[in-house]
Design goal:
mainly alpha
């Protein structure tokens, strides 16, 4: 019994420590533009553009393919099943809830974590190991402003844009395949989709994309700064960043979904 209590206490302590560390980390990054003396403005812009390019533009091909496959495998079976039981009017509402509000933000978050989260944690770990961060501090450059903040903004912006692109690709791809399979199914009319789509559906998905992107960036950069002295820590840091980012996104997804469900029910 004592062992279980110790284990739960240890987990609670780690969660609280991680949460306080992330909050302090985010606060330092948020206030960095107000204390920056202008030495790193050009570097900030360069790092921000690189991060948006790597997280967003370079990910478009895999997002395109994943969205087409996912949209087709979701919309076609769902539309066919509802058509068979005479509930065709629920096809688009079901797709909106499952795809736009639930699965696409989480699936996109996992892709961003796998591509950018691990890469950012590894990159910053190497920067710290090679004393690059210390050198920036010695030159009077604010590392919160030129290392942390552009990655937070870049990943957040790219994740939000990718979320929109993912859903456009998924809906259009799934619609095209479903229309080919169910040519007479009037409920697959895109006009009905736009009539069914509510502003709160879009808001929930976009908010999740923004929150997930910011959370992934925060956890990944924070873990990169936790490196102490050994190169063997880097794989562990990258793994820790991936696992913590996934868990955090799932927890936040539940909270945001609950808030919107309760808001609509009230």
């Amino acid at each position: 019994m004592l062992t279980v209590i110790d284990y739960l206490g240890n987990i609670t302590f780690r969660v609280v420590r991680l949460g306080s560390g992330l909050l302090g980390f985010a606060y330092s990054a948020a206030r960095s533009p107000f204390v920056e003396r202008g030495l790193g403005s050009r570097v900030f812009g360069h790092v921000l553009r690189k991060q948006v390019y790597f997280t967003g533009i370079q990910a478009l091909p895999i997002i395109f393919i994943t969205a087409l496959v996912f949209g087709s495998t979701l919309i076609v079976p769902m539309a066919f099943a509802l058509h068979m039981v005479g509930m065709t009017s629920l096809a688009w509402p079901a797709v909106i809830f499952v795809l736009i509000r639930q699965f696409s933000p989480l699936l996109l978050a996992i892709i961003v974590i796998a591509r950018s989260g691990a890469a950012v944690a590894t990159e910053i770990s190497y920067m710290k190991l090679n004393n690059e961060l210390q050198a920036m501090d010695a030159m009077g450059m604010n590392t919160d402003y030129i290392v942390v903040l552009p990655r937070l903004l870049g990943i957040t912006v790219a994740t939000t844009v990718l979320y929109i692109a993912f859903n456009v690709f998924a809906i259009l791809g799934g619609y095209a395949v479903a229309k080919a399979a169910l040519l007479e199914a009037r409920f697959l009319d895109l006009g009905i989709f736009f009539q069914t789509l509510h502003i709160l559906d879009i808001a929930e998905g976009v908010i999740k994309a923004v929150v997930f992107g910011l959370s992934i960036a925060m956890v990944s950069t924070y873990q990169g700064f936790t490196l102490k002295r050994s190169m063997t820590e880097i794989p562990q840091i990258a793994t820790r960043g991936v696992v913590q980012s996934i868990l955090l996104c799932f927890i936040l997804n539940f909270i945001i979904t609950l808030v919107f469900l309760l808001g609509r029910g009230s």
